[in-house]
Specification:
- By secondary structure, this protein is α/β, with parallel strands linked by helices.
- Helix content is 49%, strand content 18%.
- The strands form 2 sheets. The protein has a 7-stranded parallel β-sheet, with helices on both faces. Strands 7-8 form a two-stranded parallel ribbon.
- α1 packs parallel to α2, α1 packs across α7 and α5 runs parallel beside α6.
- The structure holds NADP nicotinamide-adenine-dinucleotide phosphate.
Amino acid sequence: MQLLILGAGSDIGIAIAHQFAKAEGAYICLASRSLELLEKKALDIQTRYQVNARAVSFDAIDYAGHPDFYRSLDPKPDAVVFTAGYLGNQGLAQKDFTETRKIIETNFLGPVSILEIIAADFEAKGRGLIIGVSSVAGERGRQSNYLYGAAKSALTTFLSGLRNRLYPSHVRVMTVLPGFVRTRMTAGMNLPKLLMIESEQVAEDVYRAYQSGKDIVYTGWFWRWIMGIIRNIPETVFKRMNL
Ligand SMILES: NC(=O)c1ccc[n+]([C@@H]2O[C@H](COP(=O)([O-])OP(=O)(O)OC[C@H]3O[C@@H](n4cnc5c(N)ncnc54)[C@H](OP(=O)(O)O)[C@@H]3O)[C@@H](O)[C@H]2O)c1
């Protein structure tokens, strides 16, 4: 497997790279903005698991550069994980559209731009795997992060449609829905410890779901049930809650 990780600077992205290198012997291509750091991470993967690993430059919101970015990859991936993301600042975004735009671009427009290019290649080849890291935040809008949630919701819908479109071409599309994960993104946030998991747990859940042929994976598993409840709270009650 030639696995391309887009937004590989992310704690979850690196954990997924380690998991697939270890368990699958996958060759890894780490793509993100901080090339120097990624080169060190690639070397670490190569040394630990005796697989090829390299780093390339990628900016999720440089839409114009995406066709050349993909064209320049040699070898081409047969599996890709999109894991870049930006939580942003909800309060600031309500006042400053620049922040809103960054949230929507990083979490939605970026993945749409690059994954459509990759989807076309996989579709033509009649094989491939696309894994999109979305969020449970996209399942229902809450006052504390509805702009991030809306972007993730759009990403989840996009991945669903892509899965539906690519099924006849034998291209698999998986949607990953993490809850609270202890990463740089959540550092310093006051989140319930009992509900938090590590990036390595996310990576194991993703790998298990990949092996068992699942389309949608909640990680940790209990978020499937939590979100089932949250989705079913009547709007008349939900709008009064401080979430
Ligand atoms: N942590 C959680 O609780 C949680 C929950 C649900 C979903 N998620 C999702 O899981 C994914 C991974 O997040 P994480 O928790 O691992 O967070 P993280 O460590 O903060 O990683 C986010 C990564 O996105 C990258 N990124 C942002 N904008 C980019 C751009 N324009 N081009 C390329 N890369 C860009 C950042 O790159 P730099 O290193 O260059 O800054 C960073 O490495 C995200 O999509 C996030 O929304 C996380």
